[in-house]
Amino acid sequence: MSNIISKQGRNAQKLEKSDFEKSSNHLNERVLEKVSLYLQLRLENKTFKVGKGNEKWEWSEEYKWDIFPKAHKEFMKGGFNKNNIVEKVNVLKKNNPNSGSFANFREFDDLKKITEKDPKLAAKLFRELFNEKVEISRRIDSFIKKAKTIDKNAKLGTALFGYIMAVFNQKKYPVYRNKTFLTVRKLLSKDKEWQSFSLGEKYQKFTNLCLEMGMYFKKNKLLREIEAEGVKVVPGIIALDGQDYFYILEAIISNSKDKKMNENKETDNLKNINDSEKENAKNLSKNLILFGPPGTGKTYLTVNYALNITHNDYHYCDNKKRKDLIQEFNELKSKDRIKLITFHQSYSYEEFVEGIRPVLDSDELNYELKKGILSKICQSANKDPNNKYILIIDEINRGNISKIFGELITLIEEDKRQGKENEISVVLPYSGEAFKIPSNLYIIGTMNTADRSIALLDVALRRRFRFIEFMPEYQKTGLNKKEINGVNLGKLLQELNKKIEIMIDRDHQIGHSYLLNVQENSKESLKEIWYEKIIPLLQEYFYNDWEKLEQILGRYDKAKKTGFIVKMTESEIKKVFSNDEAEEYLDAVIGKVHKYSSNNLILALKAIYQYD
Protein backbone atom coordinates (compact mmCIF):
# COMPACT_ATOMS: atom_id res chain seq x y z
CA MET A 1 0.00 0.00 0.00
CA SER A 2 1.42 3.38 -0.91
CA ASN A 3 2.42 5.49 2.10
CA ILE A 4 1.08 8.61 0.40
CA ILE A 5 -2.38 7.16 0.06
CA SER A 6 -2.55 5.55 3.48
CA LYS A 7 -1.43 8.79 5.14
CA GLN A 8 -4.10 10.71 3.30
CA GLY A 9 -6.85 8.56 4.76
CA ARG A 10 -8.81 10.20 7.52
CA ASN A 11 -11.54 9.25 9.91
CA ALA A 12 -14.83 8.52 8.20
CA GLN A 13 -18.10 9.63 9.76
CA LYS A 14 -18.64 7.48 12.84
CA LEU A 15 -20.78 4.49 12.00
CA GLU A 16 -21.05 1.49 14.31
CA LYS A 17 -20.52 -1.99 12.87
CA SER A 18 -23.60 -3.19 14.74
CA ASP A 19 -25.66 -0.98 12.40
CA PHE A 20 -25.03 -3.46 9.63
CA GLU A 21 -26.06 -7.00 8.92
CA LYS A 22 -23.58 -9.49 10.30
CA SER A 23 -21.04 -10.75 7.76
CA SER A 24 -18.26 -13.32 8.13
CA ASN A 25 -14.65 -12.55 7.29
CA HIS A 26 -14.38 -13.43 3.59
CA LEU A 27 -11.70 -10.97 2.50
CA ASN A 28 -8.56 -12.68 1.25
CA GLU A 29 -5.37 -11.75 -0.56
CA ARG A 30 -6.92 -12.11 -4.01
CA VAL A 31 -9.84 -9.84 -3.13
CA LEU A 32 -7.58 -7.19 -1.58
CA GLU A 33 -4.88 -7.38 -4.25
CA LYS A 34 -6.00 -4.25 -6.13
CA VAL A 35 -6.70 -1.98 -3.14
CA SER A 36 -3.61 0.15 -3.77
CA LEU A 37 -4.49 0.64 -7.45
CA TYR A 38 -8.12 1.41 -6.54
CA LEU A 39 -7.04 4.10 -4.08
CA GLN A 40 -4.80 5.67 -6.71
CA LEU A 41 -7.69 5.70 -9.19
CA ARG A 42 -10.23 7.13 -6.74
CA LEU A 43 -8.07 9.48 -4.66
CA GLU A 44 -5.18 10.45 -6.92
CA ASN A 45 -6.90 10.70 -10.31
CA LYS A 46 -4.56 8.05 -11.75
CA THR A 47 -5.49 6.20 -14.95
CA PHE A 48 -5.35 2.54 -15.90
CA LYS A 49 -4.28 1.45 -19.41
CA VAL A 50 -6.47 -1.10 -21.19
CA GLY A 51 -6.70 -2.81 -24.57
CA LYS A 52 -4.35 -2.93 -27.53
CA GLY A 53 -4.15 0.82 -27.85
CA ASN A 54 -3.46 1.35 -24.13
CA GLU A 55 -6.58 3.51 -23.85
CA LYS A 56 -6.83 5.31 -20.53
CA TRP A 57 -9.46 4.10 -18.08
CA GLU A 58 -10.22 6.20 -15.02
CA TRP A 59 -12.44 6.27 -11.95
CA SER A 60 -15.68 8.14 -12.72
CA GLU A 61 -18.15 6.82 -10.15
CA GLU A 62 -18.85 10.12 -8.37
CA TYR A 63 -22.39 10.19 -9.79
CA LYS A 64 -23.42 7.53 -7.24
CA TRP A 65 -22.66 9.93 -4.41
CA ASP A 66 -24.82 12.53 -6.17
CA ILE A 67 -27.83 10.42 -7.17
CA PHE A 68 -28.63 8.39 -4.06
CA PRO A 69 -29.14 11.20 -1.48
CA LYS A 70 -31.47 13.04 -3.89
CA ALA A 71 -33.35 9.90 -4.92
CA HIS A 72 -33.72 8.83 -1.27
CA LYS A 73 -35.30 12.10 -0.25
CA GLU A 74 -37.81 12.06 -3.10
CA PHE A 75 -38.54 8.32 -2.89
CA MET A 76 -39.13 8.07 0.87
CA LYS A 77 -41.27 11.20 1.20
CA GLY A 78 -44.84 10.43 2.27
CA GLY A 79 -44.40 6.70 2.93
CA PHE A 80 -45.89 4.01 0.70
CA ASN A 81 -49.62 3.62 0.04
CA LYS A 82 -51.97 2.72 -2.79
CA ASN A 83 -52.32 6.36 -3.81
CA ASN A 84 -48.62 7.12 -4.37
CA ILE A 85 -47.03 3.75 -5.17
CA VAL A 86 -47.13 4.20 -8.97
CA GLU A 87 -45.38 7.54 -8.62
CA LYS A 88 -42.73 5.91 -6.41
CA VAL A 89 -41.77 3.65 -9.31
CA ASN A 90 -41.61 6.69 -11.58
CA VAL A 91 -39.18 8.30 -9.13
CA LEU A 92 -36.96 5.20 -9.22
CA LYS A 93 -36.98 5.08 -13.00
CA LYS A 94 -36.32 8.82 -13.32
CA ASN A 95 -33.22 8.62 -11.09
CA ASN A 96 -31.81 5.54 -12.84
CA PRO A 97 -29.10 7.04 -15.11
CA ASN A 98 -29.12 6.27 -18.82
CA SER A 99 -25.36 5.87 -18.77
CA GLY A 100 -24.14 3.50 -16.07
CA SER A 101 -27.70 2.50 -15.15
CA PHE A 102 -28.21 0.56 -11.93
CA ALA A 103 -31.04 -1.65 -13.28
CA ASN A 104 -32.68 -2.63 -16.56
CA PHE A 105 -35.31 -0.07 -17.60
CA ARG A 106 -37.65 -2.85 -18.76
CA GLU A 107 -37.83 -4.11 -15.18
CA PHE A 108 -39.15 -0.71 -14.07
CA ASP A 109 -41.93 -1.10 -16.64
CA ASP A 110 -42.82 -4.53 -15.20
CA LEU A 111 -42.70 -3.10 -11.68
CA LYS A 112 -44.97 -0.25 -12.72
CA LYS A 113 -47.51 -2.70 -14.20
CA ILE A 114 -47.63 -4.47 -10.85
CA THR A 115 -48.28 -1.22 -8.96
CA GLU A 116 -50.99 -0.24 -11.45
CA LYS A 117 -52.79 -3.61 -11.34
CA ASP A 118 -52.88 -3.89 -7.55
CA PRO A 119 -51.61 -0.67 -5.91
CA LYS A 120 -52.71 -1.73 -2.43
CA LEU A 121 -50.75 -5.00 -2.45
CA ALA A 122 -47.79 -3.36 -4.24
CA ALA A 123 -47.54 -0.69 -1.52
CA LYS A 124 -47.60 -3.41 1.11
CA LEU A 125 -44.80 -5.25 -0.70
CA PHE A 126 -42.60 -2.15 -0.56
CA ARG A 127 -43.29 -1.65 3.14
CA GLU A 128 -42.35 -5.29 3.78
CA LEU A 129 -39.23 -4.89 1.65
CA PHE A 130 -38.01 -2.14 3.97
CA ASN A 131 -38.81 -4.05 7.19
CA GLU A 132 -35.29 -4.63 8.50
CA LYS A 133 -36.39 -7.05 11.19
CA VAL A 134 -36.41 -9.67 8.42
CA GLU A 135 -33.31 -10.79 6.51
CA ILE A 136 -32.93 -9.00 3.20
CA SER A 137 -32.83 -12.30 1.27
CA ARG A 138 -36.25 -13.30 2.59
CA ARG A 139 -37.67 -9.85 1.91
CA ILE A 140 -36.58 -9.90 -1.74
CA ASP A 141 -37.66 -13.48 -2.41
CA SER A 142 -41.03 -12.79 -0.75
CA PHE A 143 -41.52 -9.63 -2.83
CA ILE A 144 -40.88 -11.55 -6.06
CA LYS A 145 -43.16 -14.43 -5.09
CA LYS A 146 -46.08 -12.15 -4.17
CA ALA A 147 -45.52 -9.86 -7.15
CA LYS A 148 -45.88 -12.90 -9.41
CA THR A 149 -49.43 -13.34 -8.12
CA ILE A 150 -50.21 -9.94 -9.64
CA ASP A 151 -48.28 -10.45 -12.89
CA LYS A 152 -46.78 -13.90 -13.41
CA ASN A 153 -44.72 -12.67 -16.39
CA ALA A 154 -43.02 -9.84 -14.50
CA LYS A 155 -39.23 -9.91 -14.59
CA LEU A 156 -37.69 -8.49 -11.44
CA GLY A 157 -33.93 -9.07 -11.14
CA THR A 158 -31.35 -8.75 -8.39
CA ALA A 159 -29.99 -5.50 -9.85
CA LEU A 160 -33.44 -3.87 -9.56
CA PHE A 161 -33.68 -4.74 -5.87
CA GLY A 162 -30.08 -3.61 -5.30
CA TYR A 163 -30.97 -0.21 -6.72
CA ILE A 164 -34.20 0.05 -4.69
CA MET A 165 -32.41 -0.91 -1.47
CA ALA A 166 -29.53 1.51 -2.14
CA VAL A 167 -32.06 4.32 -2.61
CA PHE A 168 -33.67 3.23 0.68
CA ASN A 169 -30.34 3.26 2.58
CA GLN A 170 -27.04 3.51 0.70
CA LYS A 171 -25.04 3.04 3.90
CA LYS A 172 -26.41 -0.46 4.40
CA TYR A 173 -27.32 -1.67 0.92
CA PRO A 174 -25.19 -1.66 -2.27
CA VAL A 175 -26.30 -1.47 -5.87
CA TYR A 176 -25.83 -4.85 -7.52
CA ARG A 177 -24.18 -5.92 -10.76
CA ASN A 178 -24.15 -9.62 -11.53
CA LYS A 179 -20.80 -9.54 -13.33
CA THR A 180 -19.25 -7.91 -10.26
CA PHE A 181 -20.73 -10.56 -7.97
CA LEU A 182 -19.43 -13.38 -10.20
CA THR A 183 -15.93 -11.85 -10.22
CA VAL A 184 -15.80 -11.63 -6.43
CA ARG A 185 -17.28 -15.12 -6.14
CA LYS A 186 -14.44 -16.50 -8.26
CA LEU A 187 -11.80 -14.67 -6.25
CA LEU A 188 -13.23 -16.25 -3.10
CA SER A 189 -13.27 -19.73 -4.74
CA LYS A 190 -17.01 -19.95 -4.08
CA ASP A 191 -18.19 -20.64 -7.65
CA LYS A 192 -19.78 -23.99 -6.95
CA GLU A 193 -20.83 -23.30 -3.37
CA TRP A 194 -22.76 -20.10 -4.21
CA GLN A 195 -24.12 -20.89 -7.66
CA SER A 196 -27.52 -22.19 -6.49
CA PHE A 197 -28.50 -19.06 -4.53
CA SER A 198 -31.93 -17.46 -4.97
CA LEU A 199 -32.00 -13.82 -6.09
CA GLY A 200 -32.46 -12.71 -2.50
CA GLU A 201 -29.64 -14.91 -1.21
CA LYS A 202 -27.33 -13.60 -3.93
CA TYR A 203 -28.03 -10.02 -2.95
CA GLN A 204 -27.63 -10.72 0.76
CA LYS A 205 -24.25 -12.39 0.17
CA PHE A 206 -23.09 -9.47 -1.99
CA THR A 207 -24.37 -6.98 0.60
CA ASN A 208 -22.41 -8.67 3.38
CA LEU A 209 -19.24 -8.63 1.27
CA CYS A 210 -19.66 -4.93 0.45
CA LEU A 211 -20.21 -4.08 4.12
CA GLU A 212 -17.12 -6.05 5.05
CA MET A 213 -15.07 -4.30 2.37
CA GLY A 214 -16.40 -0.89 3.39
CA MET A 215 -15.53 -1.58 7.02
CA TYR A 216 -12.03 -2.59 5.89
CA PHE A 217 -11.57 0.85 4.31
CA LYS A 218 -12.98 2.58 7.39
CA LYS A 219 -10.98 0.58 9.93
CA ASN A 220 -7.71 1.18 8.08
CA LYS A 221 -8.54 4.85 7.37
CA LEU A 222 -7.76 4.44 3.67
CA LEU A 223 -10.32 6.83 2.18
CA ARG A 224 -10.67 10.60 2.29
CA GLU A 225 -13.12 13.12 0.91
CA ILE A 226 -12.53 14.27 -2.64
CA GLU A 227 -14.42 16.40 -5.15
CA ALA A 228 -14.99 15.12 -8.68
CA GLU A 229 -17.10 16.77 -11.36
CA GLY A 230 -18.55 19.08 -8.73
CA VAL A 231 -19.66 16.17 -6.51
CA LYS A 232 -18.34 15.68 -3.00
CA VAL A 233 -17.34 12.03 -2.62
CA VAL A 234 -17.30 11.39 1.12
CA PRO A 235 -15.97 8.22 2.78
CA GLY A 236 -17.85 6.21 5.37
CA ILE A 237 -20.90 5.27 3.29
CA ILE A 238 -19.95 1.70 4.03
CA ALA A 239 -21.98 -0.31 1.53
CA LEU A 240 -21.29 2.17 -1.27
CA ASP A 241 -17.53 2.22 -0.57
CA GLY A 242 -17.46 -1.59 -0.63
CA GLN A 243 -19.55 -1.86 -3.80
CA ASP A 244 -17.46 0.75 -5.55
CA TYR A 245 -14.26 -1.17 -4.85
CA PHE A 246 -15.71 -4.47 -6.11
CA TYR A 247 -17.04 -2.78 -9.25
CA ILE A 248 -13.62 -1.26 -10.01
CA LEU A 249 -11.92 -4.57 -9.13
CA GLU A 250 -14.08 -6.34 -11.69
CA ALA A 251 -13.29 -3.66 -14.30
CA ILE A 252 -9.54 -3.93 -13.63
CA ILE A 253 -9.59 -7.73 -13.89
CA SER A 254 -11.73 -7.70 -17.05
CA ASN A 255 -9.59 -5.11 -18.78
CA SER A 256 -6.34 -6.75 -17.67
CA LYS A 257 -7.60 -10.08 -18.98
CA ASP A 258 -8.67 -8.54 -22.31
CA LYS A 259 -5.27 -6.90 -22.71
CA LYS A 260 -3.44 -10.07 -21.78
CA MET A 261 -5.51 -12.15 -24.19
CA ASN A 262 -4.86 -9.67 -27.01
CA GLU A 263 -1.14 -9.99 -26.42
CA ASN A 264 -0.76 -13.67 -25.55
CA LYS A 265 -3.80 -15.67 -26.65
CA GLU A 266 -2.88 -18.67 -28.79
CA THR A 267 -5.57 -21.29 -29.02
CA ASP A 268 -3.78 -24.18 -30.67
CA ASN A 269 -5.96 -27.29 -30.44
CA LEU A 270 -4.38 -29.27 -33.27
CA LYS A 271 -1.91 -32.06 -32.77
CA ASN A 272 0.86 -29.83 -34.12
CA ILE A 273 1.53 -26.16 -33.40
CA ASN A 274 -0.42 -23.80 -35.68
CA ASP A 275 0.97 -21.11 -38.01
CA SER A 276 0.23 -18.09 -35.80
CA GLU A 277 2.12 -19.67 -32.94
CA LYS A 278 5.12 -20.54 -35.13
CA GLU A 279 5.54 -16.85 -35.89
CA ASN A 280 5.84 -16.08 -32.17
CA ALA A 281 7.58 -19.27 -31.11
CA LYS A 282 11.09 -17.80 -31.06
CA ASN A 283 9.90 -15.60 -28.22
CA LEU A 284 8.51 -18.61 -26.32
CA SER A 285 8.91 -18.01 -22.62
CA LYS A 286 11.05 -20.26 -20.49
CA ASN A 287 8.08 -20.36 -18.13
CA LEU A 288 4.93 -21.45 -19.91
CA ILE A 289 1.48 -22.61 -18.79
CA LEU A 290 -1.05 -24.29 -21.07
CA PHE A 291 -4.49 -23.69 -19.58
CA GLY A 292 -8.09 -24.50 -20.40
CA PRO A 293 -11.05 -26.79 -19.61
CA PRO A 294 -10.58 -30.57 -19.28
CA GLY A 295 -10.03 -32.55 -22.46
CA THR A 296 -8.66 -29.73 -24.64
CA GLY A 297 -5.26 -31.32 -25.34
CA LYS A 298 -3.00 -29.51 -22.86
CA THR A 299 -1.07 -32.52 -21.54
CA TYR A 300 -1.11 -34.07 -25.01
CA LEU A 301 0.68 -31.05 -26.47
CA THR A 302 3.38 -30.80 -23.80
CA VAL A 303 5.18 -33.46 -25.84
CA ASN A 304 5.22 -31.15 -28.89
CA TYR A 305 6.29 -28.12 -26.93
CA ALA A 306 9.08 -30.03 -25.17
CA LEU A 307 10.51 -31.51 -28.38
CA ASN A 308 10.35 -28.21 -30.25
CA ILE A 309 12.28 -26.56 -27.43
CA THR A 310 14.94 -29.25 -27.11
CA HIS A 311 15.62 -29.09 -30.87
CA ASN A 312 15.51 -25.29 -30.93
CA ASP A 313 13.24 -25.74 -33.94
CA TYR A 314 9.65 -24.69 -33.57
CA HIS A 315 8.69 -26.51 -36.75
CA TYR A 316 10.22 -29.73 -35.54
CA CYS A 317 6.98 -31.60 -34.74
CA ASP A 318 5.24 -30.61 -37.95
CA ASN A 319 3.88 -33.59 -39.88
CA LYS A 320 5.59 -36.16 -37.67
CA LYS A 321 3.74 -39.24 -36.47
CA ARG A 322 2.60 -39.25 -32.88
CA LYS A 323 4.27 -42.62 -32.26
CA ASP A 324 7.67 -41.23 -33.30
CA LEU A 325 7.25 -38.13 -31.16
CA ILE A 326 6.38 -40.19 -28.09
CA GLN A 327 9.36 -42.47 -28.66
CA GLU A 328 11.76 -39.52 -28.83
CA PHE A 329 10.11 -37.87 -25.83
CA ASN A 330 10.62 -41.02 -23.76
CA GLU A 331 14.25 -41.28 -24.85
CA LEU A 332 14.90 -37.74 -23.60
CA LYS A 333 13.14 -38.60 -20.35
CA SER A 334 15.44 -41.59 -19.89
CA LYS A 335 18.42 -39.23 -20.30
CA ASP A 336 16.94 -36.89 -17.66
CA ARG A 337 16.64 -34.03 -20.15
CA ILE A 338 12.88 -34.04 -19.62
CA LYS A 339 11.25 -34.61 -16.26
CA LEU A 340 7.53 -34.87 -15.66
CA ILE A 341 5.75 -34.39 -12.33
CA THR A 342 2.19 -33.73 -11.18
CA PHE A 343 1.41 -31.24 -8.44
CA HIS A 344 -1.20 -32.09 -5.81
CA GLN A 345 -2.36 -30.60 -2.53
CA SER A 346 0.17 -32.53 -0.45
CA TYR A 347 3.16 -31.80 -2.68
CA SER A 348 5.81 -29.84 -0.78
CA TYR A 349 8.99 -27.77 -1.05
CA GLU A 350 10.91 -30.73 0.42
CA GLU A 351 9.88 -32.92 -2.53
CA PHE A 352 10.39 -30.20 -5.13
CA VAL A 353 13.64 -28.56 -4.00
CA GLU A 354 15.28 -30.35 -1.05
CA GLY A 355 14.41 -31.73 2.36
CA ILE A 356 15.33 -34.06 5.21
CA ARG A 357 13.95 -37.58 4.66
CA PRO A 358 13.91 -40.66 6.92
CA VAL A 359 16.03 -43.58 5.65
CA LEU A 360 15.90 -47.08 7.12
CA ASP A 361 19.46 -48.48 7.32
CA SER A 362 19.38 -52.07 8.60
CA ASP A 363 17.41 -51.70 11.83
CA GLU A 364 18.22 -48.04 12.36
CA LEU A 365 16.22 -45.04 11.23
CA ASN A 366 18.45 -42.27 9.95
CA TYR A 367 17.75 -38.92 8.32
CA GLU A 368 19.36 -37.77 5.11
CA LEU A 369 19.26 -34.67 2.94
CA LYS A 370 17.47 -35.51 -0.31
CA LYS A 371 17.44 -33.36 -3.42
CA GLY A 372 14.07 -32.70 -5.05
CA ILE A 373 13.21 -32.91 -8.73
CA LEU A 374 13.91 -29.21 -9.40
CA SER A 375 17.36 -29.41 -7.80
CA LYS A 376 18.20 -32.54 -9.78
CA ILE A 377 17.22 -31.16 -13.18
CA CYS A 378 18.99 -27.86 -12.44
CA GLN A 379 22.13 -29.78 -11.57
CA SER A 380 21.92 -31.74 -14.84
CA ALA A 381 21.29 -28.56 -16.85
CA ASN A 382 24.29 -26.84 -15.27
CA LYS A 383 26.57 -29.71 -16.29
CA ASP A 384 25.24 -29.68 -19.87
CA PRO A 385 24.82 -25.98 -20.83
CA ASN A 386 24.71 -26.68 -24.58
CA ASN A 387 21.43 -28.60 -24.36
CA LYS A 388 17.96 -27.53 -23.23
CA TYR A 389 16.24 -29.22 -20.30
CA ILE A 390 12.50 -29.35 -19.71
CA LEU A 391 10.53 -29.66 -16.47
CA ILE A 392 6.85 -30.41 -17.14
CA ILE A 393 4.49 -29.77 -14.23
CA ASP A 394 1.06 -31.28 -14.86
CA GLU A 395 -1.88 -29.81 -12.89
CA ILE A 396 0.32 -26.96 -11.66
CA ASN A 397 -2.67 -25.11 -10.18
CA ARG A 398 -3.53 -27.98 -7.82
CA GLY A 399 -0.42 -27.42 -5.70
CA ASN A 400 0.22 -24.72 -3.12
CA ILE A 401 2.58 -22.65 -5.27
CA SER A 402 3.95 -20.48 -2.46
CA LYS A 403 4.64 -23.56 -0.36
CA ILE A 404 6.23 -25.59 -3.17
CA PHE A 405 8.44 -22.96 -4.84
CA GLY A 406 9.22 -20.99 -1.71
CA GLU A 407 11.94 -18.39 -2.25
CA LEU A 408 12.76 -19.86 -5.69
CA ILE A 409 9.70 -18.28 -7.34
CA THR A 410 11.81 -15.16 -8.02
CA LEU A 411 14.71 -17.14 -9.49
CA ILE A 412 12.68 -18.61 -12.36
CA GLU A 413 12.27 -15.20 -14.02
CA GLU A 414 14.31 -15.13 -17.24
CA ASP A 415 16.44 -12.12 -16.29
CA LYS A 416 17.14 -13.51 -12.79
CA ARG A 417 18.63 -16.78 -14.04
CA GLN A 418 22.27 -17.82 -14.00
CA GLY A 419 24.39 -15.77 -16.37
CA LYS A 420 21.72 -13.12 -16.96
CA GLU A 421 21.95 -9.41 -16.25
CA ASN A 422 19.96 -9.55 -12.99
CA GLU A 423 21.21 -12.97 -11.85
CA ILE A 424 20.07 -13.92 -8.33
CA SER A 425 21.04 -16.80 -6.09
CA VAL A 426 19.58 -17.93 -2.77
CA VAL A 427 20.90 -20.06 0.06
CA LEU A 428 18.85 -23.22 0.45
CA PRO A 429 17.50 -23.70 4.01
CA TYR A 430 18.51 -27.35 4.54
CA SER A 431 21.85 -27.75 2.75
CA GLY A 432 23.02 -24.15 3.04
CA GLU A 433 24.13 -24.27 -0.60
CA ALA A 434 23.90 -21.33 -3.00
CA PHE A 435 21.25 -22.07 -5.63
CA LYS A 436 20.57 -20.57 -9.07
CA ILE A 437 18.21 -21.49 -11.91
CA PRO A 438 20.18 -22.23 -15.12
CA SER A 439 19.15 -20.35 -18.25
CA ASN A 440 18.81 -23.57 -20.28
CA LEU A 441 15.95 -24.90 -18.10
CA TYR A 442 12.41 -24.54 -19.46
CA ILE A 443 9.32 -25.02 -17.29
CA ILE A 444 6.02 -26.07 -18.89
CA GLY A 445 2.92 -26.30 -16.71
CA THR A 446 -0.61 -27.44 -17.49
CA MET A 447 -3.67 -26.08 -15.76
CA ASN A 448 -7.23 -27.38 -15.75
CA THR A 449 -9.49 -24.33 -15.35
CA ALA A 450 -12.42 -26.48 -14.20
CA ASP A 451 -10.40 -27.10 -11.01
CA ARG A 452 -9.35 -23.50 -10.54
CA SER A 453 -9.74 -20.38 -12.67
CA ILE A 454 -6.64 -18.60 -13.94
CA ALA A 455 -7.89 -15.52 -12.05
CA LEU A 456 -7.44 -17.43 -8.78
CA LEU A 457 -3.91 -18.62 -9.51
CA ASP A 458 -1.15 -17.46 -7.21
CA VAL A 459 -0.31 -13.89 -8.19
CA ALA A 460 3.45 -14.44 -7.98
CA LEU A 461 3.17 -17.36 -10.39
CA ARG A 462 0.94 -15.48 -12.84
CA ARG A 463 3.48 -12.68 -13.19
CA ARG A 464 6.29 -15.06 -14.10
CA PHE A 465 4.59 -17.31 -16.65
CA ARG A 466 3.28 -16.88 -20.15
CA PHE A 467 -0.17 -18.39 -20.64
CA ILE A 468 -1.54 -20.12 -23.75
CA GLU A 469 -5.25 -20.89 -23.71
CA PHE A 470 -6.77 -24.11 -25.05
CA MET A 471 -10.54 -24.20 -25.58
CA PRO A 472 -12.80 -26.85 -27.14
CA GLU A 473 -12.13 -26.99 -30.89
CA TYR A 474 -14.79 -28.40 -33.20
CA GLN A 475 -13.53 -27.70 -36.72
CA LYS A 476 -9.72 -27.95 -36.66
CA THR A 477 -9.86 -31.25 -34.79
CA GLY A 478 -12.32 -32.68 -37.34
CA LEU A 479 -14.98 -33.24 -34.67
CA ASN A 480 -17.61 -31.39 -36.75
CA LYS A 481 -17.16 -33.98 -39.49
CA LYS A 482 -17.38 -36.97 -37.18
CA GLU A 483 -20.80 -38.65 -37.09
CA ILE A 484 -22.17 -41.73 -35.37
CA ASN A 485 -25.42 -42.88 -37.00
CA GLY A 486 -26.34 -39.31 -37.89
CA VAL A 487 -25.29 -37.70 -34.60
CA ASN A 488 -22.73 -35.00 -35.38
CA LEU A 489 -20.33 -35.11 -32.43
CA GLY A 490 -19.04 -31.59 -32.97
CA LYS A 491 -22.53 -30.09 -32.88
CA LEU A 492 -23.43 -32.25 -29.89
CA LEU A 493 -20.44 -31.00 -27.89
CA GLN A 494 -20.97 -27.43 -29.02
CA GLU A 495 -24.58 -27.43 -27.78
CA LEU A 496 -23.52 -28.86 -24.43
CA ASN A 497 -20.81 -26.23 -24.02
CA LYS A 498 -23.12 -23.35 -24.89
CA LYS A 499 -25.36 -24.31 -21.98
CA ILE A 500 -22.42 -24.94 -19.62
CA GLU A 501 -20.92 -21.53 -20.44
CA ILE A 502 -24.21 -19.81 -19.57
CA MET A 503 -25.00 -21.87 -16.48
CA ILE A 504 -21.48 -21.98 -14.98
CA ASP A 505 -18.73 -20.33 -17.06
CA ARG A 506 -16.47 -20.98 -20.06
CA ASP A 507 -13.78 -22.57 -17.84
CA HIS A 508 -16.01 -25.62 -17.25
CA GLN A 509 -16.67 -26.53 -20.87
CA ILE A 510 -16.03 -30.09 -22.03
CA GLY A 511 -12.99 -30.57 -24.25
CA HIS A 512 -13.02 -32.07 -27.73
CA SER A 513 -10.80 -35.02 -26.76
CA TYR A 514 -13.70 -36.70 -24.94
CA LEU A 515 -15.58 -37.27 -28.19
CA LEU A 516 -12.52 -37.59 -30.43
CA ASN A 517 -11.96 -40.89 -28.64
CA VAL A 518 -15.28 -42.29 -29.87
CA GLN A 519 -14.46 -45.12 -32.29
CA GLU A 520 -15.59 -44.68 -35.88
CA ASN A 521 -19.17 -45.86 -36.54
CA SER A 522 -19.43 -47.35 -33.05
CA LYS A 523 -22.65 -46.67 -31.13
CA GLU A 524 -21.29 -48.74 -28.26
CA SER A 525 -18.20 -46.55 -28.02
CA LEU A 526 -20.36 -43.41 -27.99
CA LYS A 527 -22.56 -44.92 -25.27
CA GLU A 528 -19.53 -45.81 -23.15
CA ILE A 529 -18.02 -42.32 -23.34
CA TRP A 530 -21.40 -40.62 -22.87
CA TYR A 531 -22.32 -42.52 -19.71
CA GLU A 532 -18.86 -43.12 -18.25
CA LYS A 533 -17.12 -39.82 -19.05
CA ILE A 534 -19.47 -36.98 -19.99
CA ILE A 535 -22.43 -37.69 -17.68
CA PRO A 536 -20.19 -38.09 -14.56
CA LEU A 537 -18.40 -34.84 -15.45
CA LEU A 538 -21.73 -33.00 -15.67
CA GLN A 539 -22.85 -34.52 -12.37
CA GLU A 540 -19.63 -33.29 -10.78
CA TYR A 541 -20.11 -29.79 -12.21
CA PHE A 542 -23.67 -29.50 -10.92
CA TYR A 543 -23.28 -31.49 -7.69
CA ASN A 544 -26.35 -33.58 -8.53
CA ASP A 545 -28.49 -30.49 -9.01
CA TRP A 546 -31.15 -32.36 -10.94
CA GLU A 547 -33.00 -29.24 -12.00
CA LYS A 548 -29.93 -27.92 -13.83
CA LEU A 549 -29.00 -31.32 -15.19
CA GLU A 550 -32.51 -31.49 -16.63
CA GLN A 551 -32.00 -28.10 -18.29
CA ILE A 552 -28.91 -29.46 -20.04
CA LEU A 553 -29.94 -33.03 -20.79
CA GLY A 554 -33.75 -32.85 -20.85
CA ARG A 555 -36.42 -34.71 -18.89
CA TYR A 556 -36.78 -38.38 -19.77
CA ASP A 557 -39.85 -39.16 -21.87
CA LYS A 558 -40.40 -42.90 -22.17
CA ALA A 559 -42.84 -42.70 -25.06
CA LYS A 560 -40.78 -40.33 -27.21
CA LYS A 561 -37.42 -41.74 -26.10
CA THR A 562 -36.05 -38.28 -25.39
CA GLY A 563 -34.30 -36.69 -22.41
CA PHE A 564 -32.13 -38.26 -19.71
CA ILE A 565 -33.20 -37.05 -16.27
CA VAL A 566 -35.78 -39.08 -14.34
CA LYS A 567 -37.21 -37.37 -11.24
CA MET A 568 -38.66 -39.30 -8.32
CA THR A 569 -42.36 -38.54 -7.93
CA GLU A 570 -44.22 -37.74 -4.71
CA SER A 571 -45.90 -41.14 -4.72
CA GLU A 572 -42.52 -42.88 -5.14
CA ILE A 573 -41.13 -41.00 -2.14
CA LYS A 574 -44.16 -41.98 -0.06
CA LYS A 575 -43.57 -45.63 -0.92
CA VAL A 576 -40.14 -45.38 0.70
CA PHE A 577 -41.16 -43.46 3.85
CA SER A 578 -44.19 -43.26 6.07
CA ASN A 579 -46.47 -40.28 5.44
CA ASP A 580 -44.98 -38.28 8.32
CA GLU A 581 -41.40 -39.02 7.28
CA ALA A 582 -42.12 -38.39 3.60
CA GLU A 583 -43.26 -34.83 4.27
CA GLU A 584 -39.64 -33.89 4.96
CA TYR A 585 -38.53 -34.93 1.48
CA LEU A 586 -41.47 -33.96 -0.73
CA ASP A 587 -39.90 -30.63 -1.69
CA ALA A 588 -36.56 -32.26 -2.51
CA VAL A 589 -35.64 -32.89 -6.15
CA ILE A 590 -34.33 -36.44 -6.37
CA GLY A 591 -33.33 -37.83 -9.72
CA LYS A 592 -31.26 -40.23 -11.75
CA VAL A 593 -29.90 -40.54 -15.28
CA HIS A 594 -31.80 -42.86 -17.59
CA LYS A 595 -29.61 -45.32 -19.45
CA TYR A 596 -30.64 -46.00 -23.03
CA SER A 597 -29.70 -48.87 -25.25
CA SER A 598 -27.20 -47.93 -27.95
CA ASN A 599 -29.92 -47.49 -30.59
CA ASN A 600 -32.19 -45.43 -28.37
CA LEU A 601 -29.28 -43.29 -27.19
CA ILE A 602 -28.77 -42.18 -30.79
CA LEU A 603 -32.47 -41.24 -31.00
CA ALA A 604 -32.32 -39.35 -27.70
CA LEU A 605 -29.25 -37.34 -28.71
CA LYS A 606 -30.79 -36.49 -32.07
CA ALA A 607 -34.02 -35.34 -30.40
CA ILE A 608 -32.36 -33.19 -27.72
CA TYR A 609 -29.87 -31.46 -29.99
CA GLN A 610 -32.17 -31.30 -33.04
CA TYR A 611 -30.05 -33.10 -35.55
CA ASP A 612 -31.44 -33.87 -38.96
Please list the strands of the largest sheet in the order they lie side by side. Answer: 6-9-12-5-13
Largest sheet: 5 strands, parallel
Distance, first to last CA: 60 Å
Q: Tell me the structural class.
A: alpha/beta
Mean pLDDT: 83
Number of domains: 3
Low-confidence runs of at least 5 consecutive residues: 1-24, 257-283
The total beta strand count reads: 17
Summarize the structure.
With 612 residues, this protein is of the alpha/beta class. It is built from 26 helices and 17 strands.
Description:
It contains 26 helices and 17 strands. It has 612 residues and is α/β, with parallel strands linked by helices. It folds into 3 domains: 17-257, no CATH class; 265-469, 3-Layer(aba) Sandwich (Rossmann fold); 479-609, no CATH class. A hairpin with a 2-residue loop joins strand 3 (226-228) and strand 4 (231-233). The termini are far apart. The model is unreliable at 1-24 and 257-283 (pLDDT under 50).
